[in-house]
Amino acid sequence: MHLFRLILKNALRNSRRTVLTISSIAVCIFLISTLQAVLASIYRVGSGSGNSHLRLIVHRATGITQPLPISYRQKIAALPGVQAVVGTQWFGGQYKDPSNFFANFAVNTDQLAEVYDDYKIPPEQLAAWKSERTAALVGEGLMETYHWKIGDRITLKGTIFPNFDPELTIRAVYRDPDDASQEHALYFHYDYLDQAMQQQIGGLNTIGTYAVKVASAADVQRVQDAIDAMFRNTAFETKTDTEQAFALSFVSMLGNVKLLLTAISGCVIFTILFVVGNTMAMSIRERTGEVAVLKTLGFRRNTILMLLAGESVVIALLGGILGAVGAKFAYAYIVATHNLGRAMGLPFALGSAAVFGLGMWSLFAGTSSHGLLKGVRYAASAVSALVGLALAMVFYTGVGFIANQGFFLADFSVPMATVLGCLGIAAAVGLVSALFPALRASRISIAEALRYVG
């Protein structure tokens, strides 16, 4: 006899209870996968890629919102070990609508390719961008989001600089092979911004931060200390961080996100444990008489224990696979197709509708022979499918919009490590929840089991 086949038959014989249990676990595991994927995406910002370990970010010691003098660039560039320096000014412009948020900067164009040498820019496009004052350099991810192409003209509405709405022509596109989340920014000429400010306030003469490329890893700490020492006790003192530390400083502004999301995940796991534990306790109590029959037929205690606990693990794993693997493919599909048009959400929504409809259909298993209940089964399944369709379209639109905005949740995805971890959680929950009632059932005597009425 194949024990696994017997476990599957026992797990599926009460289809209504099994479907409800699997659905509960799947929803909980889907939520855990999402929370952990959000956490991974947030902390990926500070993980660094390519030559980011050789970049330093210089900002005002009193706060990143306060500018630095434009003259600091030449002084920093003169330090030993410094290869290139680029001034970056956050512009904060809006494209057409305030909801169209993406990072846009006014920068010194002459050395940007040297500082950000992770960016892959075709040489002819780079030259065109540098030579035209109103040209824009745009990340490939941002180009896909708004369906732009080389040569398109766009206008940014100024917010920080409200009297300046730069009209830009896209002349160059960059890629970051190491981190696609960096491909959601736009860069234009600082000289263009400064020229506009000349007419309004007599010139800008300041800049937000400086990005500094050093020659080697051995120069990082020395250059970092030298920059801050150079401007110490001046009216514009600096604080120099590595690019990774600077990125993580934005994460820290959100508070202890890691603790919060981990705590929520822990509460969800605790909830699953109660759901599956209650289900398995009921299932095992109902089969106490069967345990007596199995023992009479010669089944050993360990075999019965494996049979009962294995049923719980199989149900939990089915829910875990549906939740974790479903989350991975769902988010991957949304991120990959959202920019191609809203119609791409229809297959996703239809798939969700099928899952909702079939789930409701299975809950009414065994009632199809009754006329009234048969009609109720069809109606409930149809309504459930429509609800699934509507929820999936809302979910598709919302996740697609957030994931394509760049920065923390750019190119949002569920890592394979998260999927495997969630499957491990599901299996552990199934085993722990069934262990005590399965042990009790396997140790009960034949006479006591036959006398039990549950």
How would you sum up the major sheet?
10 strands, mixed
User: What is the C-alpha radius of gyration, as a whole number of Å?
Assistant: 30 Å
Characterize the overall form.
elongated
Distance between the termini: 28 Å
Low-confidence stretches: none
Whole-number mean pLDDT: 84
The overall strand count is 12
Counting copies of identical and different chains, the oligomeric state is single chain
Percent in helix: 55-70%
What structural class do you assign from the helix and strand content? alpha+beta
Tally of individual domains: 2
Number of helices: 16
- Compressed to H and E, one letter per element, the order equals HHEEHEEEHHEHEEEHEEHEHHHHHHHH
Give the percentage of residues in beta strands: 5-15%
**Order of adjacent strands in the largest pleated sheet:** 4-7-8-6-9-5-3-11-1-12
Explained architecture:
It is elongated, with a radius of gyration of 30 Å. It has helices at residues 3-12, 15-44, 72-77, 112-115, 123-131, 140-146, 190-201, 220-230, 243-252, 257-286, 288-296, 301-337, 345-363, 371-403, 416-443, 446-451, and strands at residues 55-60, 68-69, 82-90, 94-95, 103-107, 135-139, 153-157, 167-174, 185-189, 206-207, 209-214, 238-242. The relative contact order is 0.16. The protein has 454 residues and is an alpha+beta fold. A 10-stranded mixed beta sheet has the order 4-7-8-6-9-5-3-11-1-12. Strands 2-10 form a two-stranded antiparallel ribbon.
